[in-house]
Write a structure and sequence with these properties.
- The complex is a heterotrimer of chains A (458), B (131) and C (498).
- Chain B is α+β, with helices and mostly antiparallel strands and 131 residues long.
- Chain B has 4 helices and 9 strands.
- Chain C is an alpha/beta fold and 498 residues long.
- Chain C is built from 14 helices and 12 strands.
- In chain C, strands 1-7-6-5-4-2-3 form a 7-stranded mixed sheet, with helices on both faces.
- The longest helix of chain C is centred in the last third of the chain and has 37 residues.
- The radius of gyration of chain C is 25 Å and the shape is globular.
- The relative contact order of chain C is 0.15.
């Protein structure tokens, strides 16, 4: 039996119109039942039963069920986490989430009508500015889905301006899930992906890179790379006649590391999650793209520009929209429409709060604390890559990483990410990430537990 | 439809060409710029580009639309209007003068005869806009 | 500047009287700070990095206090309208109520602090949640499998067309063309192009729908799929959808449904029962996750039996012992569409909403959304011209034909609505309607709000006749008015500079 919409017991708390409103509205429309409004749907595809799903639940029931699910996760709630690999737990100043819950940000749409969305537009303009200052490049967009799809968009952009070349070179030390995503995106576009490996210090093999660049429209290099090692932008930038894409998965590194734009790179793409966004099982995050001025008309996604209104007041508006799908359709620079606006706003608030000095201090603390732990661990484990690191590094023990990490989990430590999940022949390696959230005590404890685990295995 | 210069020839896609000797100056018509609205960007080919009659030579953008530009004749691009990079609005204010787009060396001057005269173009626009 | 408004016709959404706000960079003052880190408790080591890897100070970055930041963003927020403040009738966008329990659940620390690269056994709660969401979407779509990886509608479209490509390629011929009606969203042709196809546009008929003979003439062995929006962007249901599926299937092509308008028929009919092979749904539309000023969203994709082998990896699977795991072993998969596991915390919100609604509530969504749209249609028809008179479902598209006689156009009407306290409808879309005003009220609006909106629209229609200049020069009450968009595009200023 299908429920009668005009029966008061079928009211729902999110749907105001009631059994009293419905007949009155139907009278204005001139039909005698709601069902008549659906006459255009052929009767043989109409569902003659209710959907077989749970509910309707009260908030009490929802809390009970979802909290019980959340409690079954073993997370940083009751463990100390050293997980990174493209998603980092940093301090999240309380006012970020409070501001994101303001209805005017949370429940507004894309700012297509500038008179009634200056709040969103101005905040995007500010966010674009932060990204330019941090990367040393000229033009940033409003946001892309995440770091991996931002790299896809960068590959597509550089191919468009790449004068018929069809090869892109991607460092093997770029986040392997990013490269996998690029493979998915370009699978029907005739683009050839060449990977270049690393040398013993964990940095890209420059000779191999130089050789691979012949005939390529772009190279993409991550720094710090997936092994945690910081690349030498200047050395890579010396390779001529190819567009250089810097990939950044740990955005706080920009607080102290040399910006790619000042060291010969044309495009910076990456993941902004580290700027105060929870790791939340991988999303929503916020992809960014910053390019040299000459590439701005090839940019994917939304851009906000400054202008004036009819009274001469400064104001902000979506601009260069002819690049986008709603105008250029099949020839657009990207198919992106919905982006990650609210997450970008969170990142924007983070960047504003931290500012010039806070961003440097976060970077400095990550650097120092990772160096401290690395030095401590170096006494009893192998650190296979000697290149300079920011806040993440690879640890190698004589035993399978999953086994060692299992031992750490017993001590309420999420001790790292097994590298063997990403690279063949690295089953004994794992990635360890340190941030400003870790205390010296936690770092010492980690070292102690790891040492004990290794000696137990022996 | 007044002021359609009589010494130009016109294409159905609303480009004009002003021919002098074996050279021609190409732009879009007054009607086309008015239909587009405020022109914000013009993308033009490089000098030396070889165009066939009807080839896409570039594109023109207003705030919320983009239109392709087609070459009314065949030939080699000898000059592009660099001023449009900074002042695309010239296409609106002076389409037949400072708002010109490219100069071309005609490879088949006979093609010009296939284009409309000012009078024919005015009739054509009248029919178009009445649709 | 206050202009005369008819009494009793004003909404409350637009930010009349709100002040403007400087840029955060213009608040900056040397020596201010907005953060406090714990003191560095490990010995500081100098020269950890070679000099060429270090940056100089971030020139021109801000120095502001927490007070500055909170006031700045609070003031900015006041320049926005929002669905929480009132009707936001953007057609095709489904601006519905965003329940706050969704926000609370998504912030549960066990979800919010979980990490995407944790081992499966550590995130059983997350995996079970995703599994349940897939079960619910399977039932809503009437389809045997759903991928949760796409993070937006357009991302779902790309996912879908890549699957179609892979399926056809496996049969030996990926084909060349995707057919798309002229009423479609711009993302459709863009997604088709990025999936490696050329687009052929199909002309819709006088009802705004697609004629079978137009489709029949266009479909051949070079056509991979038809991408169609149901109901279409006029709100009109494609009542020959089953016949379309037959025509396509007979030629080995696929039927893709853009599910942006699922709000019109959720719980009333199911895409899988219509012969649709693949559909995406925007969870930020039908399933109430907040739009957030443009995102984030999620765009899960449901597939028919034939397309299951090609869905993105990883998938969430349940073992017989009731535990869950991420399955990477799909040899024919198109691959992954994104790093990690999709927009997980958007998915949490959507499942919370599905549970809050239940089967009765989901059906009621479509019923009341369609009722509300038809109520607006009935009240405004006449004063506003209805270019396509076919019965419409969840949205209604008028245009400015009656107003152009007074040289007042759609843009003017939209701007004038702001003075009356309402966000304008979607304008100038779909492209097949000249001067379109596309209105989608959703089920969230009470009759009183719909009446206030209709009263305002009718008042504006009268103004167009009696005081057209007032409408042409609107808005009069917003923080800024009629921006110079040509200037923004001609000489783009895309960042602040000192």
């Amino acid at each position: 039996m299908l429920p009668n919409p005009t029966d008061p017991k079928n009211a729902h708390r999110y749907i105001p119109n009631s059994s009293d409103d419905i007949p009155e509205m139907l009278r204005v429309i001139g039909v005698d039942s709601i069902d008549r409004l659906f006459d255009s749907i052929p009767s043989d595809v109409k569902l003659n039963r209710l959907l077989d799903i749970p509910g309707p639940w009260s908030e009490v029931e929802s809390r009970r069920w979802f909290r019980q699910l959340a409690a079954r996760n073993k997370t940083a709630v009751d463990h100390v986490s050293f997980l990174g690999g493209g998603a980092y737990a940093h301090d999240q100043p309380a006012c970020i989430d409070q501001l994101l819950l303001r209805a005017e940000f949370l429940t507004s749409y894309t700012p297509y009508q500038p008179e009634v969305s200056q709040g969103t537009l101005q905040s995007i303009f500010e966010y674009q500015t932060h990204q330019c200052l941090l990367t040393g490049l000229d033009v940033a967009n409003a946001s892309l889905y995440d770091g991996s799809t931002a790299l896809c968009e960068a590959v597509l952009l550089t191919e468009r301006v790449g004068k018929e070349k069809k090869r892109v070179v991607i460092a093997r030390s770029v986040h392997p899930q990013y490269t996998a995503t690029v493979r998915t995106y370009v699978q029907n576009l005739g683009i050839d992906i060449v990977e270049v490996g690393w040398k013993s210090d964990g940095r890209i093999d420059l000779d191999a890179l130089r050789a691979a660049c012949d005939g390529a429209f772009a190279i993409a290099v991550q720094s710090p790379n997936f092994l945690g090692v910081i690349e030498d932008y200047d050395a890579i930038a010396s390779i001529p006649n190819v567009t250089k894409i810097a990939v950044i998965t740990e955005a706080t590194s920009l607080g102290i590391l040399a910006p790619p734009g000042a060291h010969g790179f044309d495009i910076a793409v990456g993941e902004g999650q580290a700027w105060g966004i929870p790791t939340q099982f991988g999303g929503p995050y916020v992809g960014f793209m910053v390019v040299k001025d000459a590439l701005k008309r090839h940019m994917p996604g939304r851009l906000v520009g400054e202008t004036v209104d009819v009274d001469g007041k400064r104001a902000y508006v979506l601009t260069l929209a002819t690049r986008e799908q709603h105008i250029r359709r099949g020839k657009a620079t990207s198919n992106i429409c919905t982006n990650e606006a609210l997450i970008a706003l969170g990142a924007n608030i983070y960047l504003s709060l931290m500012g010039k000095n806070g961003l440097r201090e976060v970077g400095e603390q990550c650097l120092q604390k990772a160096a401290y732990l690395r030095a401590k661990l170096g006494d009893f484990v192998e650190l296979p890559f000697a290149g300079p690191v920011y806040n993440e590094f690879v640890v190698r023990t004589p035993f399978p990483a999953t086994q060692i990490l299992g031992d750490l989990e017993h001590e309420k430590i999420l001790g790292g990410i097994p590298l063997g999940d990403f690279y063949q022949g690295h089953d004994n390696d794992f990635l360890v990430a340190v941030t400003e959230l870790h205390s010296r005590e936690q770092l010492d404890h980690y070292a102690g537990v790891l040492r004990a685990a290794i000696s137990r295995e022996r | 439809m007044a002021n359609t210069p009589e010494d130009n020839r016109y294409a159905k896609s609303h480009e004009y060409i002003h021919v002098e000797g074996d050279g021609g100056t190409i732009g879009i018509t007054h009607y086309a710029q008015k239909e587009l609205g405020d022109v914000v960007f013009v993308e033009l080919p490089q000098v030396g580009t070889q165009l066939e009659m009807g080839d896409e030579l570039g594109s023109i953008e207003s705030v919320k639309a983009v239109s392709e530009l087609f070459s009314p004749v065949s030939g080699e691009v000898t000059e592009v209007n660099e001023a449009l990079a900074d002042k695309p609005e010239l296409v609106n204010t002076d389409p037949y003068g400072d708002g010109w787009m490219i100069k071309i060396r005609l490879s088949s001057p006979d093609e010009v005869d296939e284009l409309m005269t000012a009078e024919d173009y005015d009739d054509y626009v009248l029919a178009e806009s009445g649709k | 500047m206050t202009e005369v408004l008819e009494k009793e016709t004003t909404g409350t959404a637009t930010p009349q009287g709100a002040t403007r706000e400087r840029l955060i960079f213009e608040h900056s003052k040397r020596g201010r700070r907005g953060y406090q880190l714990p003191a560095l408790d490990v010995p500081a080591v100098e020269n950890l990095l070679p000099a060429n890897l270090r940056r100089a100070e971030i020139a021109d970055e801000v120095e502001v206090s927490e007070v500055d930041v909170i006031r700045h963003f609070t003031r900015l927020s006041k320049l926005n309208v929002s669905i929480d403040a009132g009707l936001y009738p953007l057609g095709s966008c489904t601006m519905k109520h965003n329940p706050r329990i969704n926000e609370e659940i998504a912030r549960t620390p066990g979800f919010a602090l979980s990490h995407p690269l944790q081992a499966d056994h550590q995130v059983q709660g997350n995996l079970e949640l995703l599994w349940w969401l897939e079960q619910s979407l399977k039932e809503i779509f009437g389809m045997p499998r759903v991928t949760l990886q796409p993070v937006a509608g357009a991302h779902g479209e790309l996912t879908a067309i890549l699957m179609v490509h892979k399926a056809l390629a496996k049969g030996g011929n990926a084909r060349k063309y995707i057919l798309i009606p002229d009423s479609a969203h711009g993302t459709n042709p863009a997604s088709a192009a990025f999936a490696g196809y050329q687009v052929k546009e199909l002309k819709s008929n006088s009802r705004g729908t697609l004629d079978l003979h137009v489709l029949e003439e266009a479909v051949n062995e070079d056509v991979a799929a038809l991408m169609i929006t149901v109901p279409n962007t006029l709100g009109v249901f494609e009542n020959e959808i089953q016949a379309m599926a037959k025509i396509l299937h007979a030629k080995g092509a696929y039927l893709y449904c853009d599910g942006a308008n699922l709000n019109a028929f959720v719980g009333v009919a199911r895409p899988g029962d219509m012969g649709i092979d693949v559909i995406h749904s925007n969870l930020h539309k039908t399933f109430s996750t907040p739009h957030g000023g443009g995102g984030p969203g999620a765009g899960p994709v449901g597939v028919s039996e034939r397309l299951i082998p090609f869905i993105p990896t990883p998938t969430v699977e349940r073992r017989e012992d009731g535990t869950f795991f991420l399955d990477h072993s799909h040899p024919h998969s198109i691959g992954r569409m994104r790093a990690f596991n999709g927009n997980f915390n958007v998915l949490v919100r959507a499942l919370t909403y599905m549970r809050s609604m239940g089967p009765t509530g989901l059906r009621r969504i479509a019923q009341i959304a369609v009722l509300n749209a038809n109520y607006i249609r009935a009240r405004l028809k006449g004063p506003y011209y209805l270019p396509y008179d076919a019965p419409s479902l969840h949205e209604v598209v008028f245009n400015d034909k009656n107003q152009t006689a007074h040289d007042v156009h759609t843009l003017d009407i939209a701007k004038r609505l702001m003075d009356y306290g309402f966000h304008p409808p979607t304008i100038y879309f779909p492209l097949i309607v000249s001067g379109a005003l596309m209105i989608e009220p959703t089920e969230s609006e009470p009759k009183e709000e719909l009446d206030a909106f209709c009263d305002a629209m009718l008042a504006i229609a009268r103004e167009c006749e009696e005081r057209p200049e007032l409408v042409r020069s609107a808005p009069h009450t917003t923080p800024v008015r009629r921006l110079d968009e040509a200037r923004a595009a001609r000489q783009p200023v895309l960042r602040w500079k000192k």
